């Protein structure tokens, strides 16, 4: 049935009221658990004094968030501000060479921050991938790239390479693995795009300018080489109407979201509570469901803000970077689930879509998802938790196709064709609600722990059945229908207006 199937307005009002009430109810449980256990011994390391005028402690369990917006905020702002100033000056003075300036400034910043041994290591990765790119065999590019990536993800090779980097500061591990990992992925993109180049080869300097673009170097997002090369070497630098206003608005929005998240961390300890399994066992089913959902929402917010800050800088450089990931609240199918749109675009272009084609064949889809998640597992770092996460997400993606194929056969397709579009949308919403919680459970284990994910699943599916199970599913169903309504309205806005009949045709019809 089409996406434009409408539901009665009063029904949507009911769904909105139910969802809003459930979110407030679950938040109250989390707030109560946070307030009652603020001085708990297990919270000592991750709940610290917050803003003094709130008079409450703050959840600081996420090192990455604190690194970006508290501990190393000034260092990151200084590096990005320097990039913006130099890029703007040379864009005005020598627009033809701005991509060179991007690479030189980024290379110097990396050299000063990490030292010459790290720079030599990254350059060695670039040389390997560039040499293989000249052969113009895609399978060789994948072998060389994945082997190089494995060398920084698997023992003892990663420890040996890390020992080459001198110095010791708090961010060294993160910058080392982030810089090396993203460099290799960018190098693979360069090599694969070089295989597609019909006449000649790209220069080694093109790879260096692409790789050492500072805003993307350590933390991403990944922008495929073909897009970066075309945009960074574009000399026709013009702004769209109100583009600077939009950039400023987005920057202020990101600042507002950062402040809102920090305020929430004073009242809802959503990151610390799941780490204390003794406390988790005492919480209500609604509190557990709220914790699982809020952890995924927070992870999306974090990715959207961090990539949003970087994207703001790159947009000032006249680039069109990958957009932030789709909000977890809007997801009810595995096919759209991702938390890093850059990596997702890279995997889709070079692996998933390349092997899977139109994603309509069961075997090709199975092969495509297996290869995609095999590379994702290597990218995240092979371990038991990542294996489990990859298996379940790979299964979920294929299971969606199997179910869609099964229900497209008679008599199911005949029954659905006979019922109204609104009823079809409601029935599909029930399945989507169950799928939504499968997405949450399959992904919360990578954000918190396997034990927490098992506890949430056990309480909501088995111990909480039927009251908790059905009530949570109903609330989720309400949310899914509201998402579908938003998609319906968006589809109506994007639908082109029907062409008016020509005068001659009108007279002929009369």
TrEMBL record:
It comes from the Eukaryota. Residues 489-510 are annotated as: Disordered. The chain crosses the membrane at residues 12-31, 76-94, 100-132, 212-231, 251-272, 362-380, 427-445, 465-483. GO terms for molecular function: acyltransferase activity. Keywords: Endoplasmic reticulum, Membrane, Transmembrane, Transmembrane helix. Its main location: endoplasmic reticulum. One of its GO terms (cellular component) is endoplasmic reticulum membrane. It is a multi-pass membrane protein. It is found in: Endoplasmic reticulum membrane. Residues 497-510 have a biased composition (Basic and acidic residues). InterPro entries: MB_O-acyltransferase (IPR051085), MBOAT_fam (IPR004299). Pfam families: MBOAT (PF03062). Belongs to the membrane-bound acyltransferase family. HHAT subfamily. This is Protein-cysteine N-palmitoyltransferase HHAT-like protein. It comes from Stegastes partitus.
């Amino acid at each position: 049935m089409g996406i434009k199937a409408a539901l009665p307005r009063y029904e949507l009002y009911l769904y909105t009221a139910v969802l809003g009430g459930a979110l407030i109810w679950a938040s109250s449980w989390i707030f109560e658990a946070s307030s009652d256990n603020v001085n708990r011994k297990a919270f000592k390391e991750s709940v610290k004094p917050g803003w003094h005028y709130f008079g409450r402690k703050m959840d600081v369990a996420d090192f990455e968030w604190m690194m970006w917006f508290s501990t190393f905020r000034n260092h990151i702002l200084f590096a990005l501000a320097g990039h913006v100033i130099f890029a703007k000056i040379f864009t005005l003075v020598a627009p033809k060479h701005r991509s060179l300036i991007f690479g030189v400034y980024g290379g110097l910043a990396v050299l000063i921050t990490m030292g010459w041994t790290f720079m030599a290591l990254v350059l060695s990765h670039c040389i390997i991938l560039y040499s293989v790119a000249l052969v113009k065999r895609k399978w060789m590019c994948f072998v060389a790239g994945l082997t190089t990536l494995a060398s920084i993800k698997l023992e003892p090779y990663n420890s040996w390479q890390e020992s080459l980097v001198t110095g010791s500061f708090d961010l060294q591990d993160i910058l080392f693995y982030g810089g090396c990992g993203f460099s290799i992925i960018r190098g693979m993109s360069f090599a694969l795009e070089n295989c597609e180049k019909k006449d000649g080869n790209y220069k080694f300097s093109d790879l260096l300018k692409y790789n050492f673009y500072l805003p993307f170097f350590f933390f991403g997002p990944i922008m495929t080489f073909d897009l970066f090369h075309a945009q960074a070497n574009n000399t026709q630098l013009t702004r769209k109407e109100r583009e600077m206003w939009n950039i400023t608005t987005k920057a202020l929005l990101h600042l507002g979201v950062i402040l809102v998240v920090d305020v929430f961390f004073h009242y809802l300890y959503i990151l610390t509570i799941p780490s204390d399994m003794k406390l988790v066992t005492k919480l209500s089913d609604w509190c557990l469901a709220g914790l699982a959902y809020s952890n995924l929402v927070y992870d999306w917010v974090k990715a959207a803000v961090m990539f949003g800050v970087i994207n703001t800088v790159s947009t000032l450089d006249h680039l069109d970077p990958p957009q932030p990931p789709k909000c977890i609240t809007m997801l009810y199918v595995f096919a759209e689930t991702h938390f890093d749109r850059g990596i997702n675009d890279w995997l889709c272009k070079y692996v998933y879509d390349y092997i899977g084609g139109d994603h309509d064949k069961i075997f090709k889809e199975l092969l495509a998802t297996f290869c995609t998640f095999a590379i994702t597992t290597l990218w995240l770092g092979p371990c038991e938790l990542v294996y489990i996460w990859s298996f379940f997400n790979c299964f979920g993606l294929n299971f969606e196709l199997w179910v869609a194929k099964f229900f497209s056969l008679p008599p199911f397709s005949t029954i659905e064709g006979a019922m109204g579009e609104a009823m079809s949308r409601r029935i599909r919403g029930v399945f989507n609600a169950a799928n939504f919680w499968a997405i949450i459970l399959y992904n919360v284990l990578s954000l918190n722990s396997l034990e927490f994910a098992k506890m949430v699943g056990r309480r909501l599916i088995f111990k909480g059945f039927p009251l908790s199970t059905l009530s949570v599913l109903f609330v989720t169903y309400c949310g899914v229908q509201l998402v579908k309504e938003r998609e319906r309205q968006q589809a109506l806005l994007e639908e082109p207006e029907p062409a008016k009949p020509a005068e001659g045709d009108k007279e002929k019809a009369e």
